[in-house]
Design a protein that fits this description.
Layout: H1 15-25, H2 49-63, H3 67-81, H4 84-96, H5 100-113, H6 118-130, H7 138-147, H8 153-158, H9 160-163, H10 170-184, H11 191-204, H12 208-221, H13 227-235, H14 240-252, H15 257-269, H16 273-286, H17 291-303, H18 307-327, H19 333-352, H20 356-365, H21 372-385, H22 389-397, H23 404-420, H24 424-437, H25 442-454, H26 458-471, H27 476-488, H28 493-506, H29 511-523, H30 527-540, H31 544-556, H32 560-573, H33 578-586
Helix pairs in contact: 1-2, 2-3, 3-4, 3-5, 4-5, 5-6, 6-7, 7-10, 10-11, 11-12, 11-13, 12-13, 13-14, 13-15, 15-16, 16-17, 17-18, 17-19, 18-19, 19-20, 19-21, 20-21, 21-22, 21-23, 22-23, 23-24, 24-25, 25-26, 26-27, 27-28, 27-29, 28-29, 29-30, 30-31, 31-32, 31-33
Region (Disordered): 566-591
Biased composition (Basic and acidic residues): 566-585
Organism: Paucibacter sediminis
């Protein structure tokens, strides 16, 4: 017989799928390996001929693209056999067909057939989150917690905020899950996590007072746990008390480097670079061989205008990074990217010192494709510093902009160049064109409003800021800018104060907003409160414009030597700052 006649017939494409389902429904028939000399124990499958035929038809229909028919056939088989693997298969078929309600029906049938199945309850809970049905989630969650071993219940609760993070109505999620979470918070094994997950859901639902109270209680009751402090970091921008918790924890355990680093990064995100730099300076003293702390410190020193300090920190980062490389010849991708970032920051520091050739030398080292736009923007800035604004704009315009985010970044960068060159009208033109392309981009409209103000077009600025607030009611910079503009012009001061208070409700520690509140208090004649707020703002961010405001309040209060000292500091950081120069000229004062 020719050898070719002994070849087995080709298997259909659907054979592996059928085999996996059939094996899932049959009891294992292999108690030993083939190499075993002992005879295998034979265990007959519980599958009868009708079930085999039903599974076969279901998989054939699925392979033919008839997911709906396959779903019905296999769901009926799952209900008859109460087989968990088959229920899971039916849920998967419905999800792949984007039939969420059918997946939910299958998951409920699975739960009803196997009330003690953790997998069934988990699948049901996940589908309720996916379909935005938090009101129905309480019962499955409660059952899942009861079925889950005590040591793992905290993990179940911890997964809830992420599970429901895309819910369009966070208050509905809170209402649906709150009773179960309150019960969990009464049980010893889930008390802390129940409190914290409930606090997180309250925070997302904008019930910050309740979130803060729960976080405070958890931190007090579990002083050695990190989780309450992590949530306090999230709440920092909304409640000052959250930061007090973190600082108390660091005072009790100053060597908690992970918490200090997270706190420093939270301060940086809150636009408080002076406070953030303080924490990272401590970290570099406590852990001098940790490269990441040096990189963060260098970036913050640069933001503060401390070019020399930034240069030193960034060189320390590279030195330690190269030390790591000596121990491990190949840097990780993250390490390589961090090195490229350091080179860009060193170029910026050199530019700040006026060392343009040194800046270009650092830029020549940057060769990562994903850093191309940043590198060219830095080169454009160097050209502008040399009076070659037209060439700088051409360099930016020549950058690739096929993707929407790249085009947007180009337009913003070009507007920034023009703004730095005090070319307000061309900058407004660029931003107006950007808004034509991205009409509902609140950040672009906000930037337009700032340029309109520079041109003295206050009515246009106000209209644009109100448009920003309409598009994004949580855009606290818009509330702040509008309130500050009114206060600076001594117009509608009660409204100005209300707008700034609204901004503070979103970001109570943000230095520029605190500065605005201090300024409106000064305009309303409240010198003591104005000084307190402005000192707070200046301490967190020693910006030249904040220095101008604080100095003027001190001048008005008769503290003229202190005012001159503050102005001198501001002038050293930013000698060309308009607000500072105008203030000193108006008051006929010299630092």
């Amino acid at each position: 017989m020719p050898a070719s006649n002994r070849r087995p017939p080709a298997k259909p494409l659907w054979a592996p799928a059928i085999l996996s389902v059939l094996m899932g429904c049959a009891a294992p028939a292999w108690a030993a390996s083939e190499a075993d000399s002992a005879p295998a124990v034979i265990s007959n499958s519980a599958m009868d001929a009708p079930l085999f035929y039903q599974l076969l038809i279901g998989e054939l229909e699925l392979n033919a693209g008839q997911a709906g028919t396959a779903y019905q056939v296999l769901l009926d088989a799952a209900r008859r056999t109460q087989d968990q693997a088959l229920f899971k298969r039916v849920v998967s078929i419905a999800l792949q067909a984007r039939a969420g309600e059918q997946a939910l029906i299958a998951a409920k049938a699975w739960r009803d057939a196997s009330p003690d199945s953790i997998d069934a309850h988990q699948s049901l809970l996940q589908l309720l989150a996916l379909l935005n049905k938090p009101a129905e989630a309480a019962a499955p969650l409660k059952s899942l917690l009861a079925l889950t071993p005590a040591a793992q219940r905290g993990a179940v609760l911890a997964s809830l905020p992420q599970l429901f993070q895309r819910a369009p109505e966070p208050k509905q999620v809170l209402a649906g899950l709150k009773p179960t979470l309150q019960e969990a918070a009464q049980q010893p094994d889930t008390r802390m996590m129940g409190m914290l997950v409930l606090a997180k859901l309250e925070q997302v639902a904008d019930e910050v007072d309740g979130a803060m109270a729960l976080t405070r209680s958890a931190a007090s009751e579990f002083p050695d746990a990190e989780e309450p402090l992590i949530l306090a970091l999230d709440l920092m921008g909304q409640r000052a008390e959250a930061e007090t918790l973190i600082r108390s924890a660091l005072q009790a355990k100053p060597d908690n480097h992970g918490l200090r680093q997270a706190y420093g990064r939270a301060l940086a995100r809150a636009q408080r670079p002076a406070d953030a730099a303080r924490e990272f300076r401590l970290l570099t003293e406590q852990m001098p061989d940790n490269p990441s702390s040096w990189l963060a410190l260098g970036s913050l020193e640069l933001e503060l205008g401390h070019a020399e300090a930034a240069d030193g920190a960034l060189r320390s980062f590279l030195k330690r990074l190269e030390g790591d490389k000596a121990a491990e010849p190949e840097l990780s991708d993250a390490g390589k990217d961090a090195r490229q970032q350091a080179w860009l920051l060193l170029a910026h520091a050199a530019e700040m010192r006026g060392e343009l050739k040194a800046a270009e030398a650092w830029l020549l080292r940057v060769d990562a494709p994903q850093r191309q736009m940043e590198t060219q923007l830095r080169r454009a800035s160097l050209l502008a510093r040399q009076g070659k604004l037209a060439q700088a704009r051409q360099l930016i315009q020549a950058l690739p902009g096929e993707r929407e985010q790249d085009l947007r970044a180009k337009l913003l960068a070009e507007a920034q160049l023009l703004r730095d060159a005090r070319e307000w009208a061309p900058a407004l033109d660029v931003l107006s064109k950007a808004s034509e392309r991205f009409p509902d981009d609140a950040d672009l409209i906000y930037e337009r409003s700032m340029m309109a103000e520079k041109l003295g077009r206050t009515a246009e600025m106000e209209a644009l800021l109100r448009k920003v607030i309409e598009l994004r009611p949580s855009h606290y910079h818009a509330y702040n800018a509008l309130g500050y503009s009114l206060a600076d012009r001594k117009e509608r001061l009660p409204e100005a104060r209300e707008l700034i208070a609204k901004a503070l409700s979103f970001a109570p520690q943000e230095p520029f907003i605190v500065d605005s509140m201090g300024w409106v208090e000064y305009r309303m004649g409240k010198l003591d409160e104005a000084e307190r707020l402005l000192r707070q703002a200046y301490g967190s961010r020693p910006d030249a414009e904040i220095a101008a405001h604080l100095g003027e309040v001190l001048w008005a209060a008769g503290q003229r030597d202190e005012a001159k000292r503050i102005w001198a500091e501001g002038s050293k950081r930013d000698p060309k700052n308009e607000a500072l120069r105008e203030t000193m000229q108006r008051l006929k004062a010299k630092p």
